[in-house]
Amino acid sequence: MAKQLFIDTVGCQMNMLDSEMVVATLRKNGYELTSDIKGADTILFNTCSVRAHAEDKTYSALGTLREWKKNNPNKIIGVMGCMAQKDQKKIFDRAPYVDLVVGPGQLQQIPELIQQAEDGAEQQMAVGRLRSEGSLNEIKRSHETFDPLRDPTMRPTPFQAYLRIQIGCDKFCTYCVVPNTRGPEQGRPPLQIVEEAKILADQGCKEIILLGQTVNSYKYVDADGGETRLAELLEMLEQVDGIKRIKFVTNYPKDMTVPLLEAVRDLPKVSPYLHVPLQHGSDEVLKRMKRGYTVADYREMMHRIWDIVPDATVSSDFIVGFCGETEEEFQTSIDSIYEFKFKNSFIFKYSEREGTKAEAQMPDDVPYDVKQRRNNELLAVQNEISLKANEAFIGRTVDVLVEGLSKKAAKQEDSGPVKQMCGRTHCDRIVVFDGNERQAGQILPITVYETTPFTMFGEVVTQHQTGEPVLLPIQS
Ligand code: 5AD
Ligand code: SF4
User: CA 179 to CA 82: how far, in whole Å?
Assistant: First the structure.
């Protein structure tokens, strides 16, 4: 019988992609995936360090395996990803029965490390050097880490795939651990990216989501000194047959250039959806965060976006309760949501992270209940804005890439052929409608008739209404 692999993935899309690649490599080594953790031969945790909460959950999950490992000493437990890189040996101190600790830059070593663990090697660690600001000249990671192996079963849906174009980050925002755990920023060669996009298209992917920590800072310099930026890369990807939509996340406000926005405007496959985290509405706080821009700079960027791509939707991330955040400063984040009218915002309570500048230099002095209250207040304002923006779509017809059953329908027992389906517009709005599973993967015109702040409800436009050729709901 094939060896069984259980993998638990938390954190960002980059982690999902890393897990996809690890699964693909292990399948080649005779593994198959299982959802039964205690029946697995190897258990891997792909971890996140961005906030303490994610780490606490991983340590607690490891704790529940203590007895299991005692009773099954031949089974393997591995911790990979950002927490592996950040905590290194500390993981063995807290959970000595862990067999492997593997950083995000060393994932290609996992099959070999598992083999060695099976042969009796204990507490193996493969991690990069710990990095901090000022060590920017360290040796860059090899492009081997861009393992082109893919595993279609690990994708968000069969029609959507993540595609890494950049690793690492050099921005060193004072609160953020990512530059330490994921290493220096490096762009991947554009031809490799295009090749991978073609393979994904051949496998049936309609949408690719380009990933980078600051994806719009993407730059690749070839041996002759020729430079490729994200705008040129998008032009190359636009030519890939079969790919219908291209998104890219996450953007850095300072690098939202005119040529990039013109590419978004001119290339029909590129979604007019820009996730550009503002993080805070106050210049003082942005300075403490070392974000490298002021609110006025961000406003200028928003005007550039609205001028060049008027139908673009913009979403943001915010941190509440950052070191020294006063009530007045917090109010500026509320004001910014009213001003910039983000489609949605991901709101996070500040979580002090070891090894960051904020940890070294600024006290984490906003009490937890204040952070929680500010989080709720900001979310309520964002919901009000999101609802208004969604209401503007009522009565309009949007093109929806159908992703599959809605969350609600996926939980229900079989309820006949008409199912609640779910998909997204080009500008990343979620739409649910009554349809059937054959429609998954199609781009359908849907008229919106109702909405909440998060979800629009619609109805498929029929041939009778459009006069267009029949949109047969046939998958293959
Ligand atoms: N505490 C809270 N939120 C954080 N983020 C990054 N680091 C921290 C931290 N230490 C948030 C930022 C970032 C998102 C992915 O996570 O808003 O954009
Ligand atoms: Fe972290 Fe800032 Fe880099 Fe984003 S840009 S990954 S928030 S350091």
Answer: 10
Q: Ligand 2, residues 14, 133, 176: which to mutate, most atoms within 8 A of Cβ?
A: 176
CA 59 to chain centre: 22
Q: What is the mean pLDDT of residues 165-194?
A: 95
Q: Whose CA is nearest to atom 4 of ligand 2?
A: 213
How far apart (Å, rounded) are the C-alpha atoms in residues 326 and 152?
Answer: 47
Looking at every residue in the chain, the average pLDDT score rounds to 93
- 173 Cβ below 6 A of ligand 2: yes
pTM: 0.94
Pocket test for ligand 1, best of 348, 354, 357, 378 (most atoms within 8 A of CB): 348
Identify whether the C-beta of residue 296 lies closer than 8 Å to the C-beta of residue 289: no
- Ordered by where they begin, the domains of the chain are 3-129 (3.40.50.12160), 155-271 (3.30.750.210), 279-389 (3.30.750.200), 397-466 (2.40.50)
Q: In 3D, which of 394, 339, 355, 347 has the Cα closest to residue 372?
A: 347
d(CA 104, CA 81): 5
